[in-house]
Amino acid sequence: MGFLDNDIKFLKGVGSARAALLDSELEIRTFRDLLYYFPFRHIDRSRFYKIRELREDMPYVQIKGRFISFAIEGEGARKRLVGLFSDGEKLMQTVWFSKVNTLKDAYRPGVDYVIFGKPTFFRNDFSMSHPEVSKFDSNKPPTGWQGVYNVTDKFRRSGYSPKYLSGLVSNLLAQPGFNTIPETLPTEIVDAYHLLPLQEALRNLHFPADTALLQKARERMKFEELFYLQLHILRFARTVSRKIKGLIFGHIGDYFNKFYHECLPFELTGAQKRVLREIRGDMRTGRQMNRLLQGDVGSGKTMVAFMSMLMATDNNFQAALMAPTEILATQHFETLQPWGAKIGINVRLLTGSTRAKERREIHAGLTDGSVQMIVGTHALIEDNVQFKNLGLTVIDEQHRFGVAQRARMWAKNTTPPHVLVMTATPIPRTLAMTVYGDLDVSVIDELPPGRKPITTILRYDENRMEVNRLLGQELAAGRQVYVVYPLISENPKLELKSVETGYERICGIFPQYKVCCVHGRMSPDVKDAQMQKFISGEARILVATTVIEVGVNVPNASVMLIENAERFGLSQLHQLRGRVGRGADKSYCILMTKQNIGADTRKRLGIMTETTDGFLISEADMRLRGPGDMEGTQQSGLAFALNIANLATDGQILNYARQAALKVLNAHPELTESQANEIDLSEGKLPVSQTSINTLKHELRYRFMKKVDWSQIS
Ligand code: ADP
Ligand code: MG
Hints:
This protein is of the alpha/beta class and 714 residues long. The protein contains 24 helices and 23 strands. Helix 9 runs antiparallel to helix 11 and helix 10 packs parallel to helix 11. The longest helix is centred in the N-terminal third of the chain and has 33 residues. The radius of gyration is 31 Å and the shape is globular.
């Protein structure tokens, strides 16, 4: 039991009742919890600023001076009290929108006050809204920088403010015990990366001595957080790669060569070739491949999957391709089956709706090895599906699958098959390093040639006639159209368009065409039947929610119309847009919004009209929404796991933290709890003392015992 493990109720200013509140509202139970409850911003009470020193991006500052005059301006809701404030050199405005009449007489001219608030710049002048005002007291010097803490409403209503927390931290820092708390990073790393020691970092994070030290303190704590996360992930990754022997696909054989030389329907892109070489490289090493293949919609992942599967067949292993929905599985089957037939490979399809007789036949074929390739849904995971010798599992659109389901595919062979996970949701590198820390990543960053770019336009409700004309034109030319809505049914509380009313409307406007409809509240059977109508071309217009976003391929569709586009994340819009532009024709993506969208929304949607690069879009999306909301990462618990670091902005720190973790693991393979000695030397080594090893082990245990099980994420 160290000082940090003390129950918070023993801290001066707390006691049992408040301890209960701190626990239930802020999850602060120990001294350590309080110290690691970081301020989300800081205010400068270190000195008095002059009005001429104010800058636009300043945080809260205090200014000493006098009120010259007060005036009430505006009417009704715009009614406000404007005070003219002078620091002896210059004037600025202070503005209040409430309590106008009482405040008017509260402050007297000729008396020295200190106003405190965030300066805003408007029409070439600085002003301050709702400043905190106190009488200047020459006996009370400026106190310094202070942290501002997030607290819950209930915490506030119970009579405690963020200031109360600040006071508690101050009490804690004043205790002699604080000076005994141990460093949480190996001192070798603190030195090598020029980090602030822990105690100094914590002091400055709560009560910064100045802005430079605050910056250093934040960096140190972010580094610590990311370092342990990486150490944990990489420790597991190495354990995997060493403990689990992989199947060796020693040679490229007849199937691959015949297909490559005689049957390829098109020239592979450079990126497809590169990725195939990377996969080939993995499969002959003798360690199990765990590779993530990222490739934008339409980049040709299916061909890469098929040719990787051929590497398995060439070595007398079976291969499986798993997709999240029946439709996608069927589409994959329809692509792969003819390719396989040309070179004499038996490809079968297994889904939930495969008939019993055929199912039995397929099961038997998988067991005796006569079915060489299988395409399917979750049905493949079921225990009664046994393989003779499964060598490779390809998983498409991986984020629809749970981690546990993926793991079950491993168990289909005594030596686990190689795993290739494919996703069309590009995620920024920093996120990939964290969410898929133990997967190797391949990227197809090139589209097949000859694609006509998709024209993306932003239109408002008042442009509806024009938009309908465009739809009519495309339909008349024999094309198909998607119309996507944010809701299934209208909700009186939300001013959003819905599939249900949209369907009626579209049927009314285009009575001559068959319209079908898909949304998440339909049973899978109904959904599939509706979808099938669109795929076959029988229905020309598909009205849907985002359930269609992943993978569906209808080359004849040339328009993607998205209603209330402002409601969708950029990555999601990008996915939807990827449904068109799959045939040779010119395609359109129309983002519809109401007329009065804010500048931010306009800018965000502007990114969609400017670029079709999925990686640029996902970077922007993460910057704007934060990593916790990104497609494909929700299941990782990432949003909860990070306390201070931000993957959208701390890429540089993450790189250093990962490098440090690799160096330590290289120097101390014993940390991976494995005897094997295959070590990645590319980052070099950083040997640390036995004391530091103990620190590492202690922190890993402390940090990852109860939280997200990162080892399950891949
Ligand atoms: P995704 O990566 O989105 O799964 P697909 O594999 O479905 O993309 O490929 C999209 C389309 O591009 C398919 O019609 C496919 O046949 C075609 N395609 C794939 N690779 C090439 C290539 N190298 N040259 C031309 N067309 C290609
Ligand atoms: Mg695909």
